[in-house]
Design brief:
This protein has a single domain, classed as NAD(P)-binding Rossmann-like Domain (Rossmann fold, 3-Layer(aba) Sandwich). Helix content is about 40%, strand content about 15%. By secondary structure, it is of the alpha/beta class. Helix 6 (about 150-170) links the parallel strand 5 and strand 6 (about 175-180). The chain starts with a strand and ends with a helix. The protein is globular. The protein has a seven-stranded parallel β-sheet, with helices on both faces. It has a two-stranded parallel sheet with strand order 7-10. Strands 8-13 form a two-stranded parallel ribbon. The protein is built from eleven helices and 13 strands.
């Protein structure tokens, strides 16, 4: 099988590529290698894939319709895993145009090429952010998602609606995965695990928004990869339809407890600065994963202490500290 993975130089994308390649599949990875965070980290992730002969990489921007069309015309893909996107809740407030180009126009290009080339199964990344400030927990796929708290969340909810329309119009098989706060080795520098670990190791004060009164359903990268690969191998029944699944640890952790976990892993105490809630943030995330478990017989379950120990070990090695 030959699989297209978008966002192959990204945190989740690289991990999924590595798993598919280990499973002896051929993978074509694309990424535009933008500078939202240091491209050197993306290049380092890609270097982890260099030893696989069945991996092919192209520095390609999927918001460019012509480039995407050429890619599909020169390959026959047995499936597409679309993990590329402009990420980050707070950055979407500063630069919404980047999200329109990548998350809306780019996703439309992927949808259209999958339709025209009759791709058997498209799996794409949605986000727990689509739930906004829903008060009911845990978050279920059947909950209303009509009030996004950020433009990033709005683009991810738009992806779900776009996918639903394509399925209704063209009898495609598409699955969306709502990821919940993914962390682990090779993670993103703009996310809390990286930011807090870096600050604690350097002795720099860390900022706790909403005075630390927030909780997140932290989900370890290996669990995410396992879910993605299993879902990819299980298209909607009858090979047509649009399925949506939460993929989270189903065990939300208070921010204070999260920092205490990092402190134990680093062997250092954090200096904390308490601040009000930031625009675009939500107080809590909590995944109901019963639908995922019923579909693939698997749910994430890596304990935070285990996952953060592995992340801090990787972080020290990567930065040589």
């Amino acid at each position: 099988m030959k699989i297209l993975v978008t966002g192959a130089a990204g945190f989740i994308g690289q991990a999924v590529c590595k798993r598919l390649l280990t499973d002896q599949l051929s993978v074509v990875g694309i990424d535009n290698l933008n500078d939202y965070y240091p491209p050197a980290l993306k290049q380092a992730r890609l270097s982890e894939l260099d030893s696989f002969e069945q991996f092919e990489f192209s520095a390609l921007d999927f918001s460019n319709a012509i480039e995407v069309q050429r890619l599909f015309e020169s390959n026959v893909f047995d499936g597409v895993i679309h993990l590329g996107a402009q990420a980050g809740v707070r950055y979407s407030i500063e630069n919404p145009a980047a999200y329109t180009a990548s998350n809306l126009v780019g996703f439309a290009n992927i949808l259209e090429c999958c339709r025209r080339h009759k791709t058997p199964h498209l799996v794409y990344a949605s986000s727990s952010s689509v739930y906004g400030r829903n008060a009911k927990v845990p978050f279920s796929e059947s909950d209303p998602v009509e009030h996004p708290a950020s433009y990033y969340a709005a683009t991810k909810r738009s992806n779900e609606l776009m996918a639903e329309s394509y399925v209704n119009l063209y009898d495609m098989a598409i699955t969306g995965l709502r990821f919940f706060t993914v962390y682990g080795p090779w993670g993103r520098p703009d996310m809390a695990p990286w930011l807090f670990t870096d600050a604690i190791l350097k002795g720099v004060p860390i900022k706790l928004f909403n005075h630390g009164q927030m909780s997140r359903d932290f989900t370890y990268i290996d669990d995410i990869v396992e879910g993605v690969v299993r879902i990819f191998r299980k298209p909607p029944e009858g090979n047509k339809g649009h399925a949506l699944y939460n993929i989270g640890n189903s065990s939300p952790v208070q921010l204070i407890e999260f920092i205490e976990t990092i402190e134990r892993c680093c062997g250092k105490q954090a200096e904390k600065i308490l601040l009000p809630m930031q625009d675009g943030d939500v107080p809590a995330t909590f995944a109901d994963t019963s639908r995922l478990e019923q579909a693939i017989g698997f749910i994430p379950g890596t304990p935070l202490q285990v996952g953060m120990s592995k992340f801090v070990e990787w972080f020290r090695s990567y930065h040589k500290i």
